[in-house]
Amino acid sequence: MSTPPPTTIPDELLEEIFLRLPTSDAVARASAACTSFRRVIKARAFRRRFRALHRPPLLGFMDAAGFHPAQAPHPSAPLAGALAPRAADFSFVPAVVSSASYFVPRGVQEDDGEGPRWRPCDVRDGRVLLDWRSLRPGLEVSGVSTLMGSRELVRRKLCVRPKWCNAADFHLAVCDPLSSRYVLLPTIPQDLAAQPQDLLWEFLPVLAPCTGDDSDEEPFKVICIARYRTKLVLFVFPSTTRQWSMVESPISPSLYDMSSFDYVRGSFYWIEPYDLSDHLMVLDTRTLKFSTVGLLTGYHMEIRGLPGQSFDDLRPNAVVMGREGTLEMFSLVCQQGAFALYHTSLQNNS
């Protein structure tokens, strides 16, 4: 009597079994076992469901100073410590210019003694947005680079202004430090950068948040927020088209520093410090449309007094998503020399 053929397990049942595997390593081993397992695991639907159930661990935070790994007692601290050297290393991204073109004007110290290099300017969904920083000739007296942010100018304590530049002067790259993958973005075309016909005061490159659930395969989008003297412009680079486009905002650039914003539900939120404005400025990163949220229509409540304390007045507000999915804001308000923490439930997006 012949042995009956083995029962074929339906793909739907295999998917439910693999979803219960505890780690990505276990899924990878299952994928290598046979072609039928690999077919199920490589399917986009399975990868989306697995990531929803097994979120990647938080490894740390990154800013212009580098990578700050999670510390004990955080459960990711051992893994973060092991990966910290790789997460802070961008040497695999090719340099924009050779070190032979590095120029340090007389009387200006080198920035941390490291010379020109890629530096992180935004981090989102496991990707790092880099901009190229260097000291270059051809600038007024000080030699301060046109690619240098306002905070770096303050740190150098140089009371001079660099020559005006345009958006085509900036070099950007997007990378994954853990896998050493990178994409060098083309510079913004000169004809596109010249369209605003105004003086560029601030240039802020940011990564738009991923809109899908499969971050490894999700295309990315870079948004450069360019604040001119009389207008606000977006330069947008989607990885799907690899072409720059420009969107001019109907909202005038009233904010002094565009780099201070909060991200909530696919949108960026800006506010003037200490109630100098009665609204939030909002950028929907999916539609690239600007709007405003009125502050006067919300419900305000003082939740804590903070006597005898002082705070940096650059970031007195934080916009968050509340438990019920509503937009909320926490604010430090100065009243007769003392600070108080206020909570506001925001309404009436316009």
Automatic annotation (TrEMBL):
Residues 3-53 form the F-box domain. It holds the Pfam family F-box. PROSITE patterns: FBOX. CDD domains: F-box_SF (cd09917). It comes from the Eukaryota. SUPFAM superfamilies: F-box domain. This is F-box domain-containing protein. It comes from Triticum turgidum subsp. durum. The lineage of its organism: Eukaryota, Viridiplantae, Streptophyta, Embryophyta, Tracheophyta.
